[in-house]
Automatic annotation (TrEMBL), chains A, B:
Molecular-function GO terms, alphabetical: DNA-binding transcription factor activity; transcription cis-regulatory region binding
Listed name of the protein: Transcriptional regulator, LacI family
Keywords: DNA-binding, Transcription, Transcription regulation
Residue ranges of domain HTH cro/C1-type in the record: 12-54
Length: 328, 328
């Protein structure tokens, strides 16, 4: 493209201006700077800048339809789960010459659609995402066919491969564990339950074991910390049953549980706390609390492996990979 | 490109296969789904998938040399500072029709170079980065001329605009504040100081006010929490001077200060703590500690504004914008 008569500069123009051979330019473009003098590299760089030359790799992409870039859409880059997921994805992609680039849906369905629209109009080779919208909305937003892998949030009868954790089972077995220990009531700390399938599954697992369930839903967009903390205290103290505070999201665990510990509300006797949490901060609280770890890095790595398979063989059937969360 | 005789499908092929007009296809591609029946949209989507058609916007990019995407490289996506920086950047870029895509240097200079190499060979319109490498290395890795804005880490005589905070001044005035309050010794909690200009500046500010300075450098790659905590305790207790623990990085503050509070080491009398910290968690500790907030969201927004100016007028001179950190 850049060398078929359009006015934009091509590699020959750069070579001419730099006063070196085309071979030298391509060595430079391949980063083989040890094969030329500092002065030559300097001249080449200046020529490229003067002519505002764009390497042919872009033209190559047009032919191969490949940029070696995979778009990764996470629900919120402020969540440790999301960034660890991305680090796991990147590690595997890069071992195969691909690179993961991160997009932030910022817990906003419309925003996810806008991002998909952009991604669909760019030369990304595939998309790995924590989906907020349903498959039809996602497909319509992308407006072209490309390999997709979803992770974390389960989609029923998904047209794409997905990597999820056993949300229902682990929430249920953890609840069972606390019921066995004599805890008869649970206070669930969560974002809006109906907005994410993951939360629904976890909530189902909890209600399958606990008879007395109180729920405190917190807005991810805006909430007043003190007000929410008072509501939480009120729920905990409204009767003297042995109570478990069960956080479905690490963000809420980190925001409220340390304060409950400091205020001596959590004693691991009358009141204890657990939840889905992957950071070290959550595990360093005293008294020690047993938590559910999902290993987002591993989930990311697994979804990247599935993506690489898709890229090699687009005819692959959609499969569902379940990662087992740990309670420890 | 996609319609100049190469074998790949063009918009006419899609229209033919879908049995609709080219106008309808372009409406579909522009997302104007309200202007066609669900059935038509369905047919178009299927035709696009069958022919694996890539919208012409890619071809348009080749002409305009614009993808409307800005690459953002942060030092570590696990740091709240980095993700807030990105959210600030995105908010401004998107108000002007650009989109920010995030790359993670993972605190690794070589990795930053690899990312720049990829970005240079792709159709990104510009780069906003927390630079780890020096300007020449960055330019050589990119291998083409594009607008660059650096943020957070200061570069002397930078060829590019940069947005930084007044690291030296704020570290010095905060140190002065504690000296006034009778604290005669400081223990600095930091990553390797010589690796980042930001830390050097902050350290300079501290040593300008404190005579007795102890430093605990922690590796970002790997460290043992308990061992490091014991070293920290040893430094604090090696004499009975009034001591300030001064963390140059929020990550270390969050890892060690809450434990010091829990262990009753920090009493705001003999021992207190401060540092650069932007999350709410850091501010919720009891006893309350005064902290330095950099407002990464605002820093990001500012760097995005500078980038937008660059995109409109590439001849702009490189300028240095200083954001004042708050101590509160």
């Amino acid at each position: 493209m850049t060398n078929n008569g359009r006015k934009s500069a091509n590699i020959k123009d750069v070579a001419a201006l730099a006063g070196v051979s085309v071979a030298t330019i391509s060595r430079y473009l391949n980063g083989e700077l040890d094969r030329m003098s500092k002065k030559t590299a300097e001249n080449v760089r200046n020529a490229i800048e003067k002519l505002n030359y764009v390497p042919n790799s872009v033209a190559r992409q047009m032919k191969t339809r490949s940029s070696k870039m995979i778009a990764v859409i996470v629900s919120n880059v402020d969540d440790y789960f999301s960034t660890e997921l991305f680090k796991g994805i990147s590690s595997i992609l890069e071992s195969s010459g691909y690179i993961g680039v991160l997009f932030d849906a910022d817990s906003d369905d419309d925003r996810e659609q806008r991002l998909l629209k952009t991604i669909g109009s760019q030369l990304f080779d595939g998309v790995i995402m924590q989906p907020a919208n349903n498959p039809q909305t996602i497909t319509e937003a992308l407006r072209r066919s490309m390999p997709i892998v979803t992770v974390d949030r389960e989609i029923d009868d998904s047209p794409w491969p997905q990597v999820v954790i056993n949300n229902y089972e682990v929430a249920r077995s953890v609840s069972h564990h606390f019921v066995q220990e004599g805890y008869s009531r649970v206070v669930v700390l969560t974002s809006e339950i109906k907005k994410a399938r993951t939360r629904q599954e976890r909530y189902r697992g909890i209600t399958a074991e606990f008879k007395h369930v109180d729920v405190l839903e917190i807005s991810e967009v805006v909430h007043n910390h003190q007000t929410t903390y008072q509501q939480l205290l009120h729920l905990i103290q409204k009767n003297d049953k042995k109570t478990v505070i069960f956080s479905l999201k690490e963000r809420w665990f980190l925001e409220f549980v340390p304060q409950l510990v400091f205020d001596r509300v959590i004693d691991n006797k009358r009141v204890t706390a657990t939840g889905f949490a992957d950071t070290d901060y959550a595990r360093r609280l005293e008294p020690r609390l047993k938590l559910i770890s999902q290993n987002p890095y591993f989930m990311g790595a697994s979804s990247a492996e599935v993506m690489l398979n898709q890229l090699q063989d687009k005819s692959q059937k959609a499969k569902r990979i379940v990662i087992r969360a740990k309670f420890e």
